[in-house]
Amino acid sequence: MKIQAPIHISGITPYLPGKPMEELERELGIKDSIKLASNENPLGPSPKAMAAVQRELEKANRYPEGGGYYLTQKLSRKLHISPESIVLGNGSDDVIGMLTKAFLVPGDEAIMPSPSFLMYEIMVQVAGAISIRVPLSSFSIDLTAMAAKVTPKTRMIFLTHPNNPTGSIITEEDFCSFVRKIPEGIIIVLDEAYIEFVRDASSLDSLPYLKKDQRIVVLRTFSKAYGLAGLRVGYGVMDPDISSLLHRVRQPFNVNSLAQSAATAALDDIEFLEKTLALVHDGLDTIYAALEKMGIPYLPSQANFLMIRVGDADRVYKNLLQEGVIVRSMTSYGFPDYIRLTIGLETENKRFIKALEKVL
Ligand SMILES: Cc1ncc(COP(=O)(O)O)c(C=O)c1O
């Protein structure tokens, strides 16, 4: 008999990550390509994190510290929030999965912006629940339309701040009026994977809200500004009543010991963080200026990536690949005339502009 999975599992469209550089180079027969496609940190990992991993490696015969004691303590001091409010994850992806596992049952509804980060939809479907996708308005999250989608079945709302792929933010004012419209008992997840890059002063400061509103969960990650995407470590901050439920569905050793030590050390590497932010902000400003000079429209962004309007995105993506520059076409996100570019090193940004000039 053929082995069958329930329809809500077999119906999942798997998450398609950007291809590794080595694989693309082999496929295309190119060399020295640059990857500006996955919103990674181009500087590499923080040097302090790398040194910590080296030290920790010697103890790799031991299981990791299950609750991530040192990292949790350090985050607690940095964020001025109790350790009981913090749940570590194998990337913030993992915390999304814990939330959907702990709170959603088949038939429940979860509201999310569209397009946005694809893992919300996948995790909601794994739980057998229903994703209610609310289109962006002028490339930003439409909080009014999202609030209007609440029904008695709504259990969770995802907000991405800044949003991926558009780089838009939520203002303090808009969030305040949104939260007032949402009934009790619905969890509001603010995914802040790119929060460190925000420069706009009107942007929402989420942690004070979280401290006074039990429904709010904030997700953050070490994958972007801290340069640790390959080690997989992120976290959620939430009311201790919610975190105690997440600990029931969490794998006991979900964050490995190398990742824990790297993240703990990275929090002390202020120099690396500042260097990263300066690089991304200078890179964005340089790219804006170059695109304006070329007359190419773009969306100003509060993250470490931006969307650029190039016409036929799939064609431009392929032609850029031939030049050894890997970006993302936004066709599958519903924007067939945009590509998304991750800010790279100064030399990489220059090479992108040159390649774009050539293929356009
Ligand atoms: C909006 C958003 N949330 C979460 C993540 C996942 O981050 P992590 O590496 O911590 O799982 C990403 C990764 O690209 C993202 O873009």
Number of strands: 13
Sequence stretches where pLDDT stays below 50 over 5 or more residues: none
The global form is globular
Strand order of the largest sheet: 2-8-7-6-5-3-4
* Category by helix and strand content: alpha/beta
**Amino-to-carboxy terminus distance:** 54 Å
How many separate structural domains?
2
* CATH architecture type of the largest domain: 3-Layer(aba) Sandwich
Q: What is the CATH superfamily label of the largest domain?
A: Type I PLP-dependent aspartate aminotransferase-like (Major domain)
Bound molecules: pyridoxal-5'-phosphate
Q: What is the CATH top level name of the largest domain?
A: Alpha Beta
Largest sheet: 7 strands, mixed
Mean pLDDT: 96
Rg, alpha carbons: 21 Å
Helix amount: 40-55%
N-to-C SSE string, H for helix and E for strand: HHEHHEHEHEHEHEHEEHHHEEHEEEH
Count the helices. How many? 14
Q: And the CATH topology of the largest domain?
A: Aspartate Aminotransferase, domain 2
Topology, pairings included?
Elements: H1 7-10, H2 21-28, E1 34-35, H3 47-57, H4 69-79, E2 86-89, H5 92-103, E3 109-114, H6 119-126, E4 130-135, H7 143-148, E5 154-160, H8 172-181, E6 187-191, H9 206-212, E7 216-221, E8 234-237, H10 240-249, H11 257-266, H12 270-294, E9 298-299, E10 305-309, H13 313-322, E11 325-326, E12 328-329, E13 338-342, H14 346-359
Parallel strand pairs: 1-11, 3-4, 3-5, 5-6, 6-7
Antiparallel strand pairs: 2-8, 7-8, 9-10, 10-13, 12-13
Helix pairs in contact: 3-11, 4-11, 5-6, 5-10, 12-14
The site of pyridoxal-5'-phosphate has 13 residues, from helix 5.
